[in-house]
Amino acid sequence: MPDMNRVTWLRICGVLVFLGLPILTYYLVAAPSSRGFAPGIRTTEPWRVTAHPIPGLQGEAARLAADVARYQRVRPTNGFEVFHRCRVEVLLPDSASQAKARDELIEILNHDRFMARYPQAAPLLRPTGWGGWEVRRLSADRNYTPKDMERLQGEVHADQLVATCGEIGLDPAHPITSGGESLTVGELVESARRGFVVGQESEWSVAAFCAYRPDEPEWVNRFGEQQSYAGLADELAKQELSTGACAGSHRLYALCMLLQLDATRPFFPRATRERVTAQIQMACDALRRTQRPSGAWDTGWASGSSWNGGRDLPRTLVHVTAHHLEWLIICPPEARPPDAVIVKAYRFVSDSAAQQPDSVIRDQYCPYSHFARVAALQLSAGERP
Asked: Which CATH architecture has domain 47-380?
């Protein structure tokens, strides 16, 4: 080959490399991230929160197992309740229950199987107008009838489905189908992060993001706004104690989860860590002061003055108490109320459930699921019936 041709050929090759390198970089780095797979997390096991067993419930394995079995006896009637049930059963020590939990959630994620189970429902997921995906939402303030629930499927809290995927350990590469479209769990996570804005309900978003993006505490949403776990924590910690869904309990659960993740992968500024710790301690002190003689907490737990002049219905007491127990079992032990306070609250819900027919547990499936999850977490920490 003549020298001129060789030089020309080398120059052409150089131009091709120059033009091709950015494209190659995009497909190796940016494209996986845009599809929901940030580098290094494509096949990793989701991060999970750790329970701190309640010493006063040690030796109560028979009661714990009975409480879980009582809850399991009642079957979920809609997808939202399946989310709750999976969070319980995946924690149980027997592999059959764990496999069942995964299979039930996987069924929800498959469009054909979902529609076969709920033939009157609309698809669970739908595309957004900006290229992302979202799960249909149900109103937390509306009392749906059983007939409603046959056709209305969705999540009550934002990002509850993908948070549940993380809690049961689904790989981010796991497929999801909706109508004629397909995506992955990782893409649904990425869509949730891109669509996240300050001020939205964020408690379950925290659970989802921590599970699937534990090493990415900062990101930019679709509006170009910088978001971070520290910013989320600051926003949650500055609110009144009982602010948020379920008398503020989900907010406290999210703060405890963020604190646990920060302990393994420090990302909080010192001021944020202190603010979160102080908020959790303040909530624990309030629970210690406002517990009813029965062991329950009511809707006025944060101030000591109950709504309805202290006349909360028994179902409300179960709802509030069961939710508080769930965040207390992941709370730093040194911040928790005295052990006797937590045990008394646990026994209140346990005794209430034991006195109820299955129809009542069916009617209060959500709060009893949070209670059953406490029992399952305690059992998974080493208690055996």
From this structure: Alpha/alpha barrel (1.50)
